[in-house]
Amino acid sequence: MNEIVLLRHGHALSAREAGVASDAERPLSPLGETEVRAAAERLLTAGFAPDVIISSPFLRARRTADIAASVFPAARRQTSAALSDGPAQAVMDLVEGLPGGSTLLVGHQPLLGAVAGFRLGAGPLDFPPGGFARIRCGEPPSLTEFYAPAAPR
């Protein structure tokens, strides 16, 4: 693995707002859709091109991955419950099992923050909705960008 990007899903509606029965069914809000598109386009502009996009099976993460895939149409797609259920080691095992190249992982906080901290040998990172960490995998791994979308006005 050369590089991973950990992308938190964008702002989502609450279960009550969305009229759904479970957390897994919560959709992105219109703001969340905008945040995610901006994050993916920022990555594209910076030269990131994932070979694979792996998302949590939760609706808001899958939709985030759909938006990212529209920006990166050549990337393969898959889902993994490790990105919703954890623990951080399960996500790292998932990443280590992939062939070389670049991977975009779409999931939830606090799991993504724990994975980033684990990978970087630091404390957990606090990902805002639609935020990402771009990590170059080497010895030692390095954080090349941490992105937080602008707060809504």
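[next item in queue]
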Amino acid sequence: MRAFRYSLVLLIAVASLAVPPPASGQAVKTMDLLPKIAGWVFSEDPVLYGPESLFEYIDGAAEAFIGYDLVDAAVGQYKQEGAPGTLSVDIYDMGKPLNAFGIYAAERYSESRFLPIGVQGYLEEGTLNFLAGKYYVKMMAYDAGDKTEAALRACAAAILAKIGDPGGFPAVLSAFPSEGRAANSERFILRSFLGLEFLKNGLTASYKTAGGGYEAFVMELSGESEAADLLRRYLDKAASGTAAPEAGNTVRFKDPYLDNVTIGRSGRFLFGTTKVKDADRAAGDLTAAGLAAALAGGTAGK
């Protein structure tokens, strides 16, 4: 019965308040994405924060957003009409879908209750966050009782109606083999990948084994020349120039911090595995080979 009531409220709210997405090529201002929600009104004027002022709103957490090249963030505070409920809506414009995925993935938990909202969303008690295109949206409701989830879902639907097509997960993620991959473990590191400031654009996924597990990665660079240069620099730094290519043109060596590491290049991509224990080397090799095959076959990054 409760599920039916939630669905009914959601349908009414979306049907009456959702607006068409902007015409193709029309710029969208982040503030314009703050929705109107049936039964809720602004409790104060919305605020737009930039990278230089976000600290005023979320203090220490601002650094993570700025590290993914935040453009701006629109914040709306709502109150429930005739009731004590409050709702906060934060819409972060991260400039690029990949950057939005990066901050979204950094904050989600693999055990969260995931929902098909936008690219993906997750619902926790009083909270609904989701990814849509270059936007990361965070919503929190308080004292709304049994209308909490309905209000959050209606708000998400209204925002998505304004955004339009939310896109999907980064295409390169399709290169990661599915065997052993932990669900919702994928991450994106924009800068200082693998702890080195000159490495960038690293997508990772965790793999589980009986012995614990390891990490796989792909870095997508601007071209083959940059990829070759960064591979050389990485091996000079991490492997002291002693590692030699093995089968499949990959390099494997022991790292004091990342355990067994395998790294290779395929065109503009660098790929490999890290944190591989000796007992898991066979599994790690299979994952690295799967990455190599997918990247060489052109099935990722399109």
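[queue empty]
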